[in-house]
Amino acid sequence: MAREIVDIRKEEIINACEKLYEKNSFKDITIKSIGEETTFSRTSIYNYFQTKEEIFLALLKREYERWIDDLNEMYEQNTDLTKELFADKLAHTVAKRKNLLKLLSMNMYDMEENSRMEELIEFKKAYGNAIKMVRKCVDKFFEKMNEEEKDEFIFLFFPLMYGIYPYAEVTEKQMQAMEVADVPFKYLSIYDITYKGILKLLN
Hints:
By secondary structure, this protein is an all-alpha fold. The chain has helices at 3-21, 31-35, 52-77, 83-95, 98-106, 108-113, 117-141, 147-168, 172-180, 190-202.
């Protein structure tokens, strides 16, 4: 099968998965339900992905690649940024990638554990390129930071991303439970959490 056809069909499968993930949980989505959203048979999916987790991993890979495009645009379109402006622009790129944050916070282990090594390696390349792109931005806009400070920013910022979604996307049921349990809660958006977190790391 021609590479172009393979890529088109993989993209259709990933798009179907993304559509379902907007309204359904990871556990409720199956290969069958993904297949029902495509133009070819469910069994044909196995020619491209062996597990549901591989499809989700491919979706996460695409999210990273789209985020890298936004980061590159931020890098190219700015010559000088204060800490506040850098935090603002970087936070806006993160806020656009809700699915990336959702997948990171909820299903990372399952996706990686239940995917073939070659699929995992392809994903890790995208993840690694995202780290490199953020580092490239830090190098450009904060020349006075030393290497240790830059490394510290990178290795604290990326774990921060794992925790953003659960704090920004709270369900009504969760809010009711916190109220009964007397847990203090203040709503912050994805942008708010990311912006404040970046400033803390830079300071």
